[in-house]
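Notes to self, DNA-directed DNA polymerase:
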Amino acid sequence: MQLPRLAIVDLETTGADPNRDRITEIAILVTEGERLIEQWSSLVQPGMPIPARIQTLIGITDEMVAQAPEFPALAEQVQRLLADAVFVAHNARFDYNFLRTAFERCGVAWQAPVLCTVKFSRALDPEHPRHGLDALIARGGYEIQSRHRALDDALIVWRFLQDALPRASEERLQKAWDKAFSPASQLPRMPRGNLEGLPDSPGAYVFRSATGQVLEIGRARDLRSQVLGFFTNLRASARQRKLAETVHEVESWPCAGELGAQLQELSLQRSLRGQEASRAYAWALAAPGAESRLQLIELTGSDPVHWGEVFGSFRGEREARTTLQELARQHRLCATRIGLEQGGGPCQAVHLGRCHGVCIGREAEALHDARLLQALTLLRMKAWPVTGVLQVREHHEGSERSQTHIFDHWCWLGSADDEAVLGELLQAPPSRRFDPDIQRLLVRWLAASTSALA
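result:
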């Protein structure tokens, strides 16, 4: 396979958001075929402090860039080196969007076809699980002077491409190239937000418009893959493409597990969209001597410990009554006795032979009420599965993030990211307030989990 003219680029930056962060170093290797025809690199004055963790990681300090040129002074040189070449970088989306944004600040509209060597490596060597630059260095046995410095990293990418050519067939190389290559016209513009820094952990996210309007709230098992994929999927539906074009900023909340992501998404729906907890109603046994054996109570916001025995969790009074009417029909229960008809006296069903007649003394009250309890068994709310509180601990190895979620009688009392907060939460928990959305979420999660109650 004959390689076209390539501009192999590596950038060092103050962070992962091209809209907020700035370039601190840039390196460009220009190649044709198998020849390196030009190499260039420069430190760049970012116009902002370099965070301490970034200084430690890449070794570029504020002092090193203090006298370096700012990007506008380098823009013409960078343009010359990139001209008429395929833009190549390891995780090219990151470097490309940083450069495109830097050019735009200079009033320059720039675009180029792109080859991402991460995608190229995945397609060429799918048997390997990792394809980051460190993985390529280890597999290739490459020596590098200064990892995370732009020129040395760019030279590793060039070495990887050189070594790939003789060890793979023409067909295999072309397939890998096709999967990793994107024409300039198909490269998406990324919104504001630390998208490149997103972990591959579960989490929740919010898409906002340029005016700050919330466009979408969602959750993901793999935050990085799902959010980035939303903006880079070339096969997206028309609706997705239209939404992606209007997203100006992405906010994210990484979590330690999928339960935490679901809870975070629900919290965001409540706080950002004013979504209230669903209403929930249930049938409860009335006190002895009451006119009817059942009464309808609202569960939302109450303490489940004080309910006694309740049946069903209905979204509204109409659903609750309709369900009870169907039970009465199936089991020949008395509508007056169970509170569906008011005023005492015979129920309508007794005249049609659909009630055994407790309302006219034909059936003993004890016998009727025993049949009622048997019918209600199907509606009995799922019992709280543990004694006391339930602690659900989630941990994501990749990000080393841990969270513990505390529940008591289907009520979410809170979540803790560390032992100190967990101790405070267990020592002084908030009051139990039933939320049917939380209850349904937890029931589904417990049914799917194999270890939560182990």
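- The mean pLDDT is 90.
- The first strand starts at residue 6 and ends at 13.
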